[in-house]
Task: structure prediction
Amino acid sequence: MELEQLLKTELRYQAPAALREAANVPDFQAEYTRSLQDPEGFWGAQAQRFHWFRPYERVMEWNFPDHRWFVGGQTNITYNALDRHAKGPKRNQVALLYLREDGQEEKLTYGELLDRVARLATALGRLGIAQGDRVIIYMPLTLEGIIAILACARIGAIHSVVYAGLGVSALRERILDAGAKLVMAGDVSYRRGKAVDLEAIVLQAIEDLDIPTVWFCRSKAAPQGPRFHDFNQLLWSHPPKAEAVPLDSEHPLFILYTSGSTGKPKGVVHVHGGYMVGTAYHLRSFFDVKDTDVYWATSDIGWIVGHSYIVYAPLLEGVTSLLREGAPDYPDPGAFWSVVERYRVNVMFTAPTAVRMFMKFGPEWPARHDLSSLRLVGVAGEPLNPEAWQWAVEHLTEGGKRGFVADNWWQTELGGPTLGTPITLEARPGFAGVPLPGVEAAVVDAKGHEVPPGSGGLLVLKRPFPHMMRTVWGNHARYTQYWTEIPGWVYAAGDVASQSPDGYFGVLGRADDVLNVAGHRIGTADVESALVSHPAVAEAAVIGVPDPIKGENIKAFVVLRAGREKSPALREEIIQHVRLELGPIATPAELVFLDKLPKTRSGKILRRLLKAQELGKDPGDLSTLEE
Amino acid sequence: MAQSRKLTTVQAALRVLAYLAQHPEGVEAARLATFLGKSLSTAYALLASLVAEGFAEREGSTYRLSRTALAPAPAPLARPEKLSDALEELYLRTRERSYLALLGREGELRLSTRGRQGLPRLVGLDQVTEGFHALALGKAVLAFLEAEAQARHFQHLRPFTPLTITDPLTLEEELAKVRQLGFAVEIEEHAEGLSSLAAPIFGPEGRVVGALGVLVPSRRFPYAFTRLAQAVQEVARAASSFPPQAQTPKEEEEKNAPALQPPRTPPAIPSYEEQPVWAPASLRNNANLQDYAAEYARSQQDPESFWAEWARRFHWFRPYERVVEWNFPNHRWFVGGQTNITYNALDRHAKGPKRNQLALVVLADDGSVHKVSYRELRDLVSRLAGGLQALGVGAGDRVAVYMPTSLETTLTFLACARIGAVHVAIPAGLGSQALRERLLDTQARLLVAADRMYQAGRTIPLRGLVEEATQGLTMPILWHSRDGQQDTLEFWELLEAHRPTTPALPLDSEHPLFILYTSGSTGKPKGVVHVHGGYMVGTTYHLRTLFDLKEGEVSWATADLSWIVGHSYGLYAPLLEGLTSVLRAERLDYPDAGSFYETLEECGVNVLITSPTWLRTLRKHGDDWAKKAHLSELRLVASVGEYLAPEVWHWATKHLAHVLDHWWQTETGGPCLSTPLCCPVKPGKVGLPLPGVEVAVVDPQGRELPPGEKGHLVLRFPFPHFMRTFWNNPERYAEQWQRIPGVYATGDLAVRDSEGYIALLGRSDDVIKVGELRIGTAEIEGTMLAHPAVAEAAAVGLSDPIHGEVIKVYVVLKTRESSLQVREIMASKLATYLRRQLGSAGLHTEVEVLEHLPRTKSGKILRRLLKAQELGADPGDLSTLEP
Result:
């Protein structure tokens, strides 16, 4: 999407009046102003909705670049997500509505979920897991995966979910970086009716590590041995005794790894207090969720959207959260819409890549189903192009007469929606929206000077909010770098954006060597190092090439070691090697053998040139190219 | 070295004895220690040995010489070294706690024991001078003592447990049995949970000198019996100097024949009478009903406003004009009003904050679990209702339902009610003749049937049965098939073919909701009719005030959906009140008793509504299952369907939760008698009339009987959820109000105590008349169940030319696998026990041990069948017999 073209787009669109009038936050402007003028009062009021074992003394402390929220208070996010509801009238309300890949449904009420979580938490305690210990969860999107997450949080252990699909080295790296004391794993995940083996990946990743594992098995028998435990056996052999441990507001809740342009993945750390207050706030104010809604985030618990908007925020707000395992177009391209009809989904949160995929299948699929319950479709993960936006409005919300499509932008680091189009404002296709309450955003140049409206620049945030990350696990310097990369005491999001004169932000893509494949951030460095770890590969470079559905695809350029012959078989072998190392989402869609890679004189690979050649564009200044 | 120490010990002991002899006033250990020049602990050790050997006595902290220590021995005692070998021998053979009891000079028993850690033992018994009668060891000795020596022990008969024999006549009988068998048996007579076997040891003159016995936990007793009886007898015989003489003098036989004894009442056992028990304070303080007396009075003084007030919580499409119209014997409630029970049970919640709350958790017979929210349930019901209408079913049409407890059954009931059709549930598995009879009686417009059901790992095919029953009938059948066979009318296909748009039809309050045939333990089945308005109001009232359910709670009625308990408290009342109801199709103890506890735990059940049968079965399965379970959510157990024996009440209250016994019938729609949480419980008595219910205990002419007299239980007035009529048979309905003039005869016998508590004694056709005595079977069964060895009991009266009727009781022992001999012994022990408990030593009672009792599907014992088998008669309609 070219910038000028974007700014010229005249499309405007408002949610139906009935929805705007019934919005949880009817006057967005007033809300936003208050959030910036009096952040302490604003977030303090939000925090009052939750239970604090000990009240906090101060709402926030901001010692650049470190921020702390609800200082001195004690809480536990699971007490607020589970006990509060399970002990009240919502005890038998469905908390989680899970659709298995085979179409069968499983439900857990708040009462049942608390029971299961408390049992598993008791069991974890017996396994020696204590407050502050890290637990890696490598489980598919299942109720058990969520129970595992919550059980950790209940006893103050720090969960680190690794998307069950990442490969051996990615998993191993995260286990080591987090210093995990336990791995909880699934034996398989299901996709398109087939079981995908996870067990082999886990066993290989922990091969020489002395770490116990808990297995949630659906297809195989759990591995035998003293270090192996069966998830269900463990859960059901323990009483639901474990109470939610009162924890400092700033006690780490989870580590979630995300890719950067260089080096190792970063372990983003979120905490109990601020994350709870902030994510829940946006569920109500941005996604406009009501008490009796069925809410469906189509993501996976392996990603930040799954953490915030499948698990924590919906449970904190006591609504019904729907989750579904498997591909969006399986068993047929109407699968999503039959779920919306059958379960009367009110609010849905999905990704642009999914919308583009449905566009490809055609409007007849949603048309076959009664989508009358659907009020709001939130979309995030990568830029939502106007065509996809248009299609969603047309075919999912009766041309906008019944519902609203709410674009939004955020990151693992930010915990919840940061830029977005609230239901009471005009939507402007191509623009993610305005800064949401608590957020002060700007577009600047590399020196930190704000650029005029309409010009492209770097997206920065000028202040933290409660649900923003606290540090990078084991690497606080890397955290500081976020805030010091661009002068002016701002947080560099790493995205290129532009601002319209009336304050709407359009996010255009990454500013660094990070790819966005179907909404997943993938570091080129990760893929390149996986490539060179193959014995036949001498050098490798990776670029993103545009893809109509996924946004970007990975293309790899490889120089073979002397003596290795280029062959289709070897190409396939190298691709499979990357798949095993990093998982399917980071697998190159294309792999080209080159005799040498273009490099600068200082030896850096010029990806820019590769990309320009690929797209038939001007590669720009090549003065530093090595001849 | 060792030699010299031993000498000094003996010397020291002698010196102590001499010292004690000099000091008849008694000596303290410290003084002895000084005297001996030894440590205090040595002095204690010496004194303890002397006491144990009978040379010294201890009183408080002083010791003195035993009065008998230096007296000449009157008779040579059996050689103790030989006897202790026998004790060792017995232990080695049985590996059970073994005892040797020796008869002392003063008629006391001196016990020594052999065993190992972990085996039970008799606590606090070094030497027993009284209460021999309670121990097998004692009885083995007592049986062979001379009358004079026996007599002094007969003066000390006192209870140790509720099973101790404290009546001399019964004890005589018992001892005669010991002489006959050659050994004595003790079943929890001395200590609860312990049983024992003992055989006598005889001295050189053929006189009894003691006994050898083993002690085992009662639960193991029946299994171990044969082995132990053999070992005890053999070892005791070997230890005896002479074999016991066969003692069967004629006069003794006569002396012990109870029939020749003048009738006498055994002494009461006051310490074991049931005391009133309060519900735990936590339950009582939070009970929905706090003041029973006030509530009851209000319901009697002004029933119209009482029920009108409760009716206000529901939606009425048109408000009613009058609360009640009572034209004896017909009654109508909420007259002129319009409502629909499903609007109140579904739509009301699906539109409100309970939209995503679970309405039902159905654990189906195929192992699948359906959790259905109010919104989902309303949509499913609405879709099926549309389907039924498409089949031509309209308001007032009868729809027969022949399916096991399942989601499909609930949907069918509710879909019928939604469009005003009348559902007629027929328990799946009921014979084709019975099914046909009901189809014809109701002129059903449609039959909804399952092709099969699964139970306890078996597939029970129903298709053939249904086809046989419907031969020649024209009604369509909507099948829920699971055999892969495609029927023209398939349940889920019909449902899926319709959109959730069929609304709840406004119906007159008195519009029939369902017909339910009573289980027919007597005569021709009757179709009880209940209606939308009153049934809705009445059943929910008791759900809240008696079953005490709170918002956000889970209830589980274990009854099949096809029974009234399933209708009222598995389905309608919990849904009307917006709660979550658990339904389970599988047998409660399949694959094992743990399965029941799993359901309680996994579903977080707060209130369990079940049957005494099941509670008895649970008790039979033992405490271990209950102890393993985490039942922190369960706070109340309601028991209905049969007499709940105090033992079972106590067991269930201890191991599950506070138990609410209650009584009602298909005809009454909801509970009539019970003990609300705010009143003390009298186990064995069901309790008080509930608000809105006016009962009396009357004689056949309708005259009210004074407290303590047995009579017929009757209702004086109807209430909103009381049946309206019998389908196609209003005469039969009227007759029920005329059998005893002016009141509704429940057909049950009852007795009321001075505080108004009512105990049910059984069906009036379940009364046994022995001579002048009239005893309800429930009373007899309750008594039998009080015996720790008994799991279940059924009593019948058998006609006898001399005595009119004799009582025969069939029992199932807690431990099923027991040998024939054990059964015989138990049967005779139980017959004795029963006679004694009933207070009529002259009664003819017979006890037979069975593997299991025949039951109806609703869990009622088919006494009719037992009786018929006994008399070789035709048992009649057995269509409701559980396979």
Remarks:
- The two ends of chain B are 77 Å apart (CA to CA).
